């Protein structure tokens, strides 16, 4: 059921770091991305996969985590992602990806969840260092880093009213709390 | 299998117009969108659903179809979408949706495919008329129109080389042909 995958596709930021994601699984996720819709069918996205300790460590150093968790600097050793997929725009194809990447990314994340993994979309990263790690000689622009692994955290969704705070937070047991708007509040038909 | 849903999620532009999509199905699709990731968890998206002939006709008049099919003006009567979901940005929440909408849209489309429907993402529409149809008094901006229905066309994917033409086209039997880049060509690791 797609609904189960969609529900389980939360933004995970702590993982069982010793649980690997195989290269073939990562390539399968990229294949799901490949088949996502693309504006004007340009297909300007390129992907870099990593699942080795060496490259993972380099990528990890470029990332900023969880802006609303001001006391937390990101996952500790042992709980870091065991793989990454970095999504790039190939500027030789086009300068404008029309938000294509998020169509592809949602396929990747749902594919990861289907295999009992999960991930987090990271838009806050050191662009220059990412380009150095991947390849400085291509005319490509990093758009997002997807951090992937076997999730090591519990995430609780709860409903809020329209003017309530939307920031996620952690309770005293370190369970991640994510406020979500109610279905009726996002349906314009119910609010006209 | 997610892969089957992803494969079947093609951009359909002709439908069995008499096959309705129920309001409850459309609301379920919006619920899938509600659970998509959202940058900063802002959740600034709002949705308008339509499945009546009257509102569908008004929406249809605002749309432009299939830029590469220069001899085709869109689906004829009997083959038009039987439902629409229009995705809006609520500007009272934020001016910047960070491409959130495509995370939500992919969930909607996969949900539609799971129920044997399908759709097409339309970014070319008459903005003023869409706002008039939905509600001119809210501070909302239309981002995309999703055309939905039971697909009445066959779509064939075929692989291309990096410099080949990416425009979709129809063969003499009106079967829609969509060129897709090869997996190895979009994997930077294989091209460094």
Question: In short, what is this structure?
Answer:
The structure is a homodimer of 192-residue chains. The first copy, chain A, is of the alpha+beta class.
Relative helix content of chain A? 25-40%
Using only CA atoms, what is the Rg of chain A?
17 Å
Main sheet characteristics of chain A: 4 strands, antiparallel
Strand proportion of chain A: 15-25%
Mean pLDDT of chain A: 96
Structural class of chain A: alpha+beta
Number of helices of chain A: 6
Summarize the structure in words:
The structure is a homodimer of 192-residue chains. The first copy, chain A, is α+β, with helices and mostly antiparallel strands. Helix content of chain A is 28%, strand content 22%. Chain A has 6 helices and 7 strands; from the N terminus they run H-H-E-H-E-H-E-H-E-E-E-E-H. Chain A has helices spanning 2-8, 23-34, 53-60, 100-114, 127-134, 183-186; strands at residues 45-50, 83-90, 118-122, 140-149, 155-160, 169-170, 176-181. In chain A, the strands form 2 sheets. In chain A, strands 1-2-4-3 form a 4-stranded antiparallel beta sheet, with helices on both faces. In chain A, strand 6 and strand 7 form a beta hairpin. In chain A, helix 2 packs across helix 4. The longest helix of chain A is centred in the middle third of the chain and has 15 residues, at 100-114. Chain A starts with a helix and ends in a 6-residue tail after the last helix. The mean pLDDT of chain A is 96.
